[in-house]
Write a structure and sequence with these properties.
The complex is a heterodimer of chains A (67) and B (372). Chain A has one domain. Helices cover 0% and strands 45% of the residues of chain A. Chain A has no helices and 5 strands. In chain A, strands 1, 2, 3, 4 and 5 form a 5-stranded antiparallel beta sheet that branches. Chain A starts with 7 loop residues before the first strand and ends in a 5-residue tail after the last strand. Chain B is an alpha/beta fold and 372 residues long. Chain B folds into 2 domains: 151 residues, no CATH class; 165 residues, Peptidyl-tRNA hydrolase (Rossmann fold), CATH 3.40.50. A 7-stranded mixed beta sheet of chain B has the order 1-2-3-7-4-6-5. In chain B, α8 runs parallel beside α9. Chain B is elongated and about 105 Å long. The relative contact order of chain B is 0.13. Classes of the chains: A mainly beta (67), B alpha/beta (372).
Chain lengths: 67, 372
């Protein structure tokens, strides 16, 4: 079920990302959305302070079409 | 060319006269057959749109079945059940005596929602609430597309049968908007299947921050509340229970908070997505007063009732977006507006209430992919 490939909308070339935020130091990490992600879900350990991060946002943004 | 040459052999008929005759013939034909010609063009146009709608509704139906089978692990083939859902009708109560009408609508809609959820849950042996809620939403999309197709087909065939020029022209003019709305619904399917937050979920995203780490309790069906503090004010924060694709019952929740829990709010702050007008930017924030909530009006009525009865001012914070953006995966512009919305909410709390006051903050919208 877990997918590391960003979900893409074929028409508008939308890529979906998950933003993980460290509640302690505020560091934000952007990665591709994986099925099962949701806002407030526990994320990976913070690379800066090793605290538990949380998913702060899930959003889509337009990317330039390749070719 | 031979006809023209032959015509020019007629005595007294020169090129100029022939062109004039052709023009006169054209004007006469146009005068008598203009509407028939336009009806023919409209029929072709509508027919093309109708084919598009058929493809869309078939795709939505197939996607719903595939989701039930592949993700929901349906115990039996759900095709027949899905087809039943597509034609399922909700009969609205009679409105010739409007007294108590909202209660009746609420009863009918709640009965319908409960029935759909129970039947979907029956199909899915795992009974995972997220999967069940997504299935409900997928079926809702498929049902809406099926209804749109049926209604357009009805007027197309009626216009064709009765040769009604005005029916066909009206339908032809509406077709681009109908297709746009159907397209938005179809695009929503992908977001729902992936469990991604949709643009309408901006209210829940904002209030989930106030609820983080706080104890939650159920205050109405599919609706959770947490109590927190902000600069000496006690906040009662509520949203639909996520990360399921629920909208909850914020009207009932507010009634329970005020009337059953005895909370005396100095203000109710509602955060919701609002449809933008063409030309407005996605993610723009608008402030206002009044109950910021869509739907058929039941929840709005309940919130207005509670607010009016207890003389509580209701403030609205709206995030602008199109219908497509509201029901498909949340766009960056909308997500990034969440920080600004939090600042606006905090400012409203500081400006409109004083220390020791109680405030209700409600995040309105579909909470798919947004827990608390």
């Amino acid at each position: 079920m877990m997918s590391s490939v960003p979900a893409a909308d074929k028409k508008s070339k939308l890529m979906v990302y998950t933003i993980e935020e460290c509640p302690a130091c505020g560091q934000k990490t952007k990665r591709a959305f994986a099925v099962g992600d949701y806002v407030t879900k526990d994320g990976a350990k913070c690379t800066k302070c090793a605290n538990q991060t949380r998913v702060a946002l899930v959003y889509a943004e337009n990317t330039k079409p390749s070719g | 060319m031979s006809i023209i040459s032959a015509a020019l052999q007629v005595p007294g008929l020169d090129t100029t006269t022939l062109i004039s005759l052709v023009w006169i013939g054209f004007i006469v034909i146009t005068f008598f057959y203009q509407t028939r010609l336009q009806s023919y063009l409209a029929l072709n146009d509508i027919s093309r749109g109708l084919n598009k709608l058929k493809v869309m509704k078939d795709k939505a139906r197939k996607d719903a079945i595939d989701y039930l089978v592949n993700v929901g692990k349906a115990s039996a083939d759900p095709t027949q059940k899905v087809d039943q859902f597509l034609d399922y009708v909700t009969i609205m109560p009679v409105d010739i005596d409007p007294a108590g009408l909202v209660g009746k609508i609420d009863h009918v809609v709640t009965t319908n929602n409960d029935r759909v959820r129970a039947e979907v849950a029956q199909l899915l042996p795992q009974n995972n609430p997220v999967t069940v809620s997504i299935s409900e939403n997928l079926l809702e999309v498929a049902t809406s597309l099926n209804q749109i197709h049926k209604i357009v087909r009805h007027f197309y065939l009626l216009g064709k049968k009765t040769n009604s020029y005005f029916t066909l022209i009206q339908l032809q003019m509406l077709m681009p908007m109908i297709i746009q709305e159907a397209d938005a619904l179809l695009n929503a399917v992908d977001s729902f299947k992936m469990g991604q937050p949709v643009g309408d979920g901006i209210g829940p995203v904002v209030v989930s921050r106030y609820m983080a780490g706080k104890e939650k309790r159920i205050v109405a069906k599919d609706t959770v509340m947490a109590v927190t503090e902000y600069k000496g004010r006690k906040l009662y924060v509520l949203k639909a229970d996520g990360p399921m694709a629920y909208v909850g019952q914020p009207g009932v929740a507010m009634k329970n908070i005020v009337e059953e829990m005895g909370v005396k709010p100095s203000a109710i702050i509602m955060i919701d997505a609002a449809l933008k007008l063409e030309g407005e930017k996605t993610g723009e924030i608008a402030e206002g007063v009044g109950a910021a909530i869509g739907g058929i009006g039941v929840e709005k009525f309940q919130i207005e009732e509670v607010a009016t009865k207890n003389k509580v001012p209701v403030y609205a914070v709206l995030v602008k977006q199109s219908i497509l953006e509201a029901i498909t995966v949340m766009r960056k512009e909308i997500a990034e507006a969440s920080d600004k919305v939090s600042q606006v909410v905090n400012r409203l709390i500081e400006e409109k209430t004083k220390e020791g006051d109680e405030v209700v903050v409600a995040g309105i919208g579909n909470t798919l992919g947004v827990a608390q």
